Amino acid sequence: MKLRSFMIISALSFGGFALMSWQSQQLPHPIPQEATQGKQVWQDYNCISCHALFGNGGYNGDDLTHIINKRSSLELINFFVKPPVMRPNHKRLHPQLSQDEAEKLVQYFKFLDKIPTLGWPPKARKSGENI
Ligand code: HEC
């Protein structure tokens, strides 16, 4: 390769790279602030000990990656603010959250729902159904 073509290719690659990094700085911050606060609520109550996100976490409760598709925001908020008693022995309440915490958590679930997961979590099989 001649030195001149090498110089041109280098200049173009550098220009392209500079343009890409400039563009990425122009994009809005991808995680809304409320969702970040909701993630903090998720951590504070250690929800991961019983629920998975993206398949990672506890298996006591359901995988909640796309829970917002299954329940409305209002249903979820009511569930968190006035929690039911829990399986398996129904002796303990599901963690109780304030209205504010519940709303932030729902924003976190809405954000999670936008992340493409190729159909994860899979639908639960009925007992007796073949794999
Ligand atoms: C000690 C285990 C445990 C912890 C901790 C826990 N959960 Fe649960 N969760 C369950 C179980 C079990 C259920 C199934 C409902 C039932 O039988 O009471 C459930 C149900 C749910 C549901 C309803 C799911 C559906 O399909 O409708 C949501 C939403 C949920 N939990 C969110 C959370 C969040 C958010 C936290 C943290 C604030 C949390 N859970 C903490 C065990 C837990």
Give the gist of this structure.
With 131 residues, this protein is mostly helical.
How would you describe this protein?
With 131 residues, the chain is mainly α. It has a domain of 84 residues: Cytochrome Bc1 Complex, Chain D, domain 2, CATH 1.10.760. The chain contains five helices and two strands. It has a two-stranded antiparallel ribbon. The longest helix has 24 residues. Heme C binds next to helix 3 and helix 4.
Number of helices: 5
CATH superfamily of one domain: Cytochrome c-like domain
Q: Total strand count, please? A: 2
Approximately how much beta-strand content do the residues carry?
Answer: under 5%
Rounded mean pLDDT is: 89
**Strand order of the biggest β-sheet:** 1-2
Keywords:
3% strand; mainly alpha; binds heme C; 49% helix; 131 residues; Cytochrome Bc1 Complex, Chain D, domain 2; single chain; 2 strands
Q: Which helices and strands, and how do they pair?
A:
Blueprint: H1 3-26, H2 33-44, E1 52-53, E2 56-57, H3 67-70, H4 73-81, H5 99-113
Antiparallel strand pairs: 1-2
Bound molecules: heme C.
Heme C (HEC) is lined by residues 45-47, 49-51, 60-62, 64, 67, 70-71, 76, 79, 84, 86-87, 94-95, 105.
Domain Cytochrome c: 33-113
Keywords: Heme, Iron, Metal-binding, Signal
Protein name: C-type cytochrome
